[in-house]
Amino acid sequence: MKESKKHSPKFLKTEKTPVEPFDPEALIEVQHLSKKYGSLLVLDDISEKIKSGEKIAIIGPSGSGKSTFLRCLNVLEDPTDGYVFFEGNNLCDLKVDINLQRRRMGMVFQQFNLFNNMNVLKNITLAPVHMGMQDLRKAKRKNALTRFLNLFRSEEKKKELVPIETNKKQIQEQAKENAMRLLTRIGLADKANVYPSTLSGGQRQRIAIVRALAMNPKVMLFDEPTSALDPEMVGEVLQLIKELADEGMTMVIVTHEMGFAREVATRVFFMDGGKIQEQGPPAQIFGSPQNPRLKDFLSKVL
């Protein structure tokens, strides 16, 4: 499995908005986030905080910047200006290992993005096994270096080796066990050895969610997870997301399902023109909206 590409040199924030102190209580914080594609301004100076346990629903018309904002949270899109903090780490800093940070940020896309040449079990275990083996190799390399350097140190200055309590077989077995547990939870354990192309859209999306959960993320990011589904399959996917919300998972979900946003979200962001035009608890957003554009939007979708 290939690692995500490293930050490109242009991603170093030097002649931009100065970084401000981040809120230690925020799981995710964005400061003055802007994104341009050429001359097109898609996100316009957004500053926002998301705390652990919050369920944020992002609503708004097509082209308002919702998906781009979501993809900037884990830097799948490089911000043109501004900063993104996750657990206090500035993801726009070249010194930060972005791949390490993304392990704790699960992402679910509209089109599932499963590997059709791998069975369901392999799709789910691929990333955990890859990351586990990567950590194992890193620990072994560190120990090899420590052993070498210890040859030149006095007894009292010798360094301790990193304890290694696993091996390739155990990593693979643990990933498989966890994958089967998750598949059993969603009632698809019998599909472990089939290929994604043989499954319904609803089944594939639930497996995509399980694949993200297999990495034990701190937050789940959903980019319109039901938009590619037939209407009768939407409910089973939303039910799984609702169960995750009830269990306390922090999540940010771009959605057109207003009833779901009203029921599950702790806060709702209404985006239009690249800005969060209004935000608040669902009762306020849907019951007494203040922004004229939000009122117009709701009149058309409710």
What does this protein look like?
Helix content is about 40%, strand content about 20%. The protein has helices at about 65-75, 100, 120-150, 170-185, 200-215, 230-245, 260-265, 280-285, 290-300; strands at about 25-35, 40-50, 55-60, 80-85, 90, 105-110, 220-225, 250-255, 265-270, 275-280. The model is unreliable at about 1-15 (pLDDT under 50). It has nine helices and ten strands. It is globular. It has a six-stranded mixed sheet with strand order 6-7-8-3-9-10, with helices on both faces. Strands 2-1-4-5 form a four-stranded antiparallel sheet, with helices on one face. With about 300 residues, it is of the alpha/beta class.
- Sheet having the most strands: 6 strands, mixed
Secondary-structure-derived class = alpha/beta
Strand content: 15-25%
- Any idea what the shape is? globular
| Helical coverage, percent range | 25-40%
Record the strand order, biggest sheet: 6-7-8-3-9-10
Count of DSSP E strands?
10
Layout: helices, strands, pairs:
Layout: E1 26-37, E2 40-51, E3 55-59, H1 66-73, E4 81-86, E5 89-90, H2 98-102, E6 105-108, H3 120-150, H4 168-185, H5 201-213, E7 219-223, H6 231-246, E8 250-254, H7 258-264, E9 267-272, E10 275-280, H8 282-287, H9 292-301
Parallel strand pairs: 3-8, 3-9, 6-7, 7-8
Antiparallel strand pairs: 1-2, 1-4, 4-5, 9-10
Helix pairs in contact: 3-4, 3-5, 5-6
